[in-house]
Amino acid sequence: MFETLKKAPVDKIFKLLGEFRADERDEKIDLGIGVFKDKNKQTPIMRAVKKAEKQIFDEQTTKTYVGVSGNRGFCDSVSDLVFGDSVDKSAIRSVQAPGGTGSLWVLLTLIARARPNGKVYVSDPSWPNHWPMCELAGLEPNFYPYFDAKTGKVKFEEMMATLDGLTSDDSVLLHACCHNPTGANLTNEQWDIVAKSLKKTGAFALVDSAYLGFGEGLEEDAYGLRKLASELDEMMLAFSASKNFGLYRERVGVAFCITKNPEQADIAFSQMGNIVRASFSQPPDHGAEIVRVIMADPALRAEWEAELKDMREFIVRIREKLALAIRERSNSSNFDFLTEHMGMFSLLGLSKEQVDKIKKEDAIYMLDDSRISIAGIPENEIGKVADAIVSALR
Fold first, then answer.
1. What gap in Å lies between CA 353 and CA 355, rounded to an integer?
2. Which of 205, 210, 229, 268 is catalytic?
3. Is-above-0.85 flag for pTM?
4. Is a pLDDT exceeding 80 seen at residue 149?
5. Which end of the chain, C or N, has fewer beta carbons within 10 A?
6. Class of the CATH domain delimited by 65-296
7. Residue 325 appears among annotated catalytic residues
8. Residue 30 bears catalytic tag
9. What are the boundaries of each domain within the chain?
10. Is 208 a catalytic residue?
11. Which fold has domain 10-44+305-393?
């Protein structure tokens, strides 16, 4: 059987990680993998998470299944976190899934069941997994313009020219905040325009929320998704707790559907449950229970929010220092956009040849398209990263 197969394409992020690990240079820096790192180059376990885990260890009495739709307390607490009071909860249904990727898979599969071979528009560029996931679900991915690498800004007029031309047969995948890979985000006023356009055309919105709280704050980062939820009759949202709770390996996510009425919501819920059962049977509980415990305990929630604020401010500080260091070395403001971007990533606009030069000569690893994980830059080595970037440009 296997002689009929060819090797699958290697995921570029994990390929880069393999190269980084094989590099024996002590001074190497990994700016590829999207995980938060502290000043010691470690991805820490949040204090609130450790306390919740201890509580679970002390109080949990069983390891039996949680059910196809997952940990209901977890799903409901995340619903309150992301949607607030922007939408009638009676029209929302949710299922737990393994991470944001598992949540996206459930929702894309549901779109494919409702609209076989339907078109899904994703930003250019977007998270590398968006396009192949659409294809695997049986949908037709297309790009809408999004980022201008020369200016470091969103091509909003071009983006809206595409979105305004969509129909009710089309779907559009939007990043809730902290756009990956660019770090360039829509303003609140632009979100208002997007919502108005989708309401007019009837195009269906699927929102990917992987970085809530990493931009301007939990409430501020939720503006766009809440605007859509309040204005549109229907939408979907995939939520990940990997970044904002630091639960990367626990694979914690929720898939949400908002429908026109509770009857349609029940139908969507039954379909999502059917997809879960056929895909991974039931979701894992440990990470979800951690989040549920934190959200249910006012003291733990306050501690988690304070830790998240510290992480966000650390990333902002790295952005500001890197932009300043490049400006001082190049006598140019061309990289000042780094201070305008939000979240873990930014796209530098370097060529593949320049990226290769930095990797070979400076042991600094970033993706071929020059996406860097801002949170991966050691604060005491910002100068080294700036030197490498400026040298590659000359």
1. 5
2. 210
3. yes
4. yes
5. N
6. alpha beta
7. no
8. no
9. 10-44+305-393, 65-296
10. yes
11. Aspartate Aminotransferase, domain 1 (3.90.1150)
